[in-house]
Predict the structure.
Amino acid sequence: MANDIIITSIYGKSSIVSFRDAAHRVLRENWEADRMTDKVCQNDRILDMAASIIRDEIRLSVHDLTRYPEMDEVENSNMIPDSLRRYLQQMLDPKSKNTDVVNRRRTAIAHSLISACRPRSFVSPLLLAISVYIHHKYASWELIDILSSLSFSNAYKEVQRFESSLISSGEPSYNLNGFTQFAFDNAVVNVATLTGHNTFHAMGGIACVEKLPLQRTVKLPQAELVEAFGQVRIRTFAKPTLPGLKLVSVEPLVFHKVRICR
């Protein structure tokens, strides 16, 4: 029984008498608590260091804000830092067989993170495409701003800037020096008439281009310029008094004799 009792004496303090089993339990609990604390602190330091490395690499990346990036540049390595790409590859199911879906999700999350870190110096073609689609589909600036506040799309002001970039130059948005294909079609309005007259014939066309970088404007144009873009001035048709071929005048040709001097 004497071997089961432990007496601990410390100079200047009262002696402590305890049983061996209780002492071992207390020491083990203190050791495990210190070990868990060190492990948690070590994990926190690793996570903080990884976040700092990814954030610094995102902020050191250079992006061209003078033009809008194209969809081909979504998978560009210069747009997504290597550290963020590697982190997402390990985070989102690296053993998945459906690589297309996983890569698309990685790219979307990466663009959202970069946009959250650099809201003023990064324009994502993926987030901009979402904003433009919502604007044309639902015409809701409030929905766009809600998604923008969550870093799931660009702001509505960027959509306005994108549309103003299309009309600010006042020049055709196609390059005749490259590959350009024009497609035209006609339309007839008010064809169901009793006499077959008073119908309106119209023709419209579009230009299909392969690729053209769009310059990004910073200053929004005036409302008068936006209102006048794409409008065709209507001209009133004056119906002649005489119908059909009576409007065509036919005159005889007169041949004049030419005197040749020798």
Observations:
- Residues 20-60 form the longest helix (41 residues).
